Amino acid sequence: MSRSQLLVSLFAALMIGAGLYFAFRERPVAVDMASVVSAPMKVSIQEEGVARVRDIYTVSSPIAGHLDRTTLEIGDSVSANETVIASIHPLDPPFIDERQRAEMLAAVEAANSGVALARVEHSRATLALDLARSEYNRASRLAKTGIIPDSQLERAYNEMKLKEAEVASTEAAIRLREAELASANARLRQPSDINIQAARGEGCCVHVFAPIDGVVLKVMAESERAVSPGTPIAEIGEPGNIEIAVDLLSKDAPRIEIGGTAMLTEWGGDEALKATVRRIDPAAFTKVSALGIEEQRVNVILDPERVPQGLGHGFEVLAELEVWASEDAIQVPIGALFRSDGSWAVFAVENEVAYLRKIEIGKMNNSTAQVLAGLSENDVVVLYPSDQIDDGSLISER
Q1: Domain ranges across the chain
Q2: CATH top-level class for 45-53+240-325?
Q3: What digits encode the pLDDT tens for the residues 80-136?
Q4: CB atoms within 10 A of CB 67
Q5: CA-CA-CA-CA torsion for 58, 62, 63, 67, nearest 10 degrees?
Q6: Which residues contact 349 (CB under 8 A, 6 or more apart)?
Q7: In terms of CATH architecture, what is 59-92+205-237?
Q8: CATH number of 25-41+327-397
Q9: Distances (CA, A) of 242 to 237, 304, 310, 317
Q10: What is the pTM for the complete model shown?
């Protein structure tokens, strides 16, 4: 074999070997990577809340009556003890059915008979009084001449006074029976027989005034109608005195501290509002989520540092309540974490090789986790590792 043929054979063998190497060698897996950084970190809870006026006054009807149509509208300003919220008139009398009418007619007839009987008694008492006066006058003349003793004159005088008292009693009985007759006749009157407009005069109306300076938040009784005691008419509050009510899961509420900070967003403005936790309710309530799951919720009350123009009663806000914060925390993206043998682990990248490394983490938020051990600042880890990656796999950045 000549020298040229030997060189050609060697070259062909090298080409075949190189082809086999590139065909069967391990190919690196394309992955996304991220660096471990040391930066400020905070853990917070995000929940929807509702802005509400802190002190709401519900104006209600103090008596049963007929409510005039409310002239106030939502947003109107009111002054304490000056603005009339509602005017209440006496109720119209009810209609009388046939049975009630028959009973009342009988009562009228009985009252008429009572008046007649009282007048007869009055006439009899008047006649007895005239007789007693005549007896007294006769006894007075006889006593002056000594025909009868003074004791008989005193008896005649006392008899006259008794008859005068009986006459006064019968006069009072007549007035009583006449009042009963008038009452029975009044009960017979139908609503159509009464001048309702005259009955609703200025003197028979009860005015309900605003208890505080503020605005009308809600009108519950706008139309004219009959009301009973305690019927709500309107709600009044001060729009500048706003608090935020956020209902948290009961398992999250113990992580919040009174006096902690919160940020309010998505309330309609561009800026975020800072707020402070004022109260955590001691009792939870059951609420059904959008997925139909019953959850135990706890109201957390926040006080915003300021109330911007446009934030009103019943507005929805998004509250981010701070649970934990650090100015310098080593953290890794959550997308790099996975579980291995019951521990947290990541794939650390060294010289384009992925090495399985178990780590210890602390606090976690929606994007990063605090690293307590196992990683250092500027280490590179694989994001969202797939099942194609194993300990010692070759990788390349996507």
Answers
A1: 25-41+327-397, 45-53+240-325, 59-92+205-237, 98-193
A2: mainly beta
A3: 999 999 888 887 777 777 888 888 888 888 888 988 998 999 999 899 888 888 888
A4: 20
A5: -40
A6: 33, 355, 380, 381, 382, 395
A7: Beta Barrel (2.40)
A8: 2.40.420.20
A9: 10, 8, 12, 12
A10: 0.62
